[in-house]
Amino acid sequence: MISPKVFKRQLNGIKKMCNKIFKENKHGAFIISLDFELQYGIEDHQLDYLSQYKKNILGVRQVIPKLLSLFDELDIRATWAIVGMLLAETKDELLAFLPTDIPKYINRGLSVYNYLDRIGKNENEDKFHYGLSLAREILNVSGQEIATHTFSHMYCNDMMLVNNALVEDLVLAKKITQEKLGVDPVSIVFPRNQINESCIRALSDLGFTAYRGCPSPSVYNFPQNTYDIRARRLMDSYFMIYGCKTQKWEEVYSGRICNVAASSFLRPYSERFSFMEKLKMNVIKRSMEYAAVRGEIFHLWWHPHNFGVNTEKNISNLMNILSCYKKMEKKYGMKSMNMNDVARFLQ
């Protein structure tokens, strides 16, 4: 019989050998995640803003097929985090899914449940709140992961009481995704990247294996999105003042769930800042190459509605990024992965 000390020494030796093999064989990873939310993502905004943003939301119906065609052509894997409510086929069906424990917010205006009267009867009547047909298109393209963006576009850091309402919301998100798409989502993106320890503790019990965390610089981890914070993030997008924000593989898995942290938000093309488009693109491509050379993870994210206007310019920017990725793939062995791919690779 092997003594406990010898067994422990042998086990440590095996762990060191496995870590050495992993470090020698790890590769850079290019992750894309998209927050598919339609109007649910901006329902708490002022009515004049909603009116101005209509073109973006309606444009999603052209954007998603274009993205899927591009991903399919270039063999790009991506995670699509979908708000559960937009998968309902009718208003009656949506109302039947509503939770018994309606989330309570410090700012009551944040709750989507206050705006149910804005929702039409079905997708034919209301293109702003229904998107099952688009979700089914995503399902049909290889390498695309169906994840959840919570059931009700829930803001975890703004809730008065988190646990019960959060768990019920996520159960409903899973249920409607399973019923409508035949998929049990195991990855999650929290709206506005609001996440806390209570959220993380609940995830593994519900069968989730990965979530998108915030970039490591503290400017990306403030609970309140103040003008100062937004300005600093904006500057970072063009001048990389907080570095590359890539993630090391060993930082992803905590032993409970994978934090596939965001690296960069792909800001949409802006006429106002068009003279700085090249700077924005260079920041993303430099960060991607940094990850590829060092065998780390670069995670790019945006919303389909960000491309809803100036669609061709936004798609052109994305093609530029994907062309850079293909070079990194060929030169350094970088791989396109979705969030579930990362969790499966590590667990």
What report would you give on this structure?
Helices cover 44% and strands 10% of the residues. Strands 1, 2, 3, 7, 8 and 9 form a six-stranded parallel sheet that branches. A three-stranded parallel sheet has the order 4-5-6, with helices on one face. The chain is α/β, with parallel strands linked by helices. The longest helix is centred in the first third of the chain and has 22 residues. Helix 3 packs parallel to helix 10 and helix 9 runs parallel beside helix 10. The chain is built from eleven helices and nine strands. The chain is globular.
Total of helices: 11
Unreliable parts = 17-22
Structural class: alpha/beta
Helix content: 40-55%
Query: In angstroms, what is the radius of gyration?
Result: 21 Å
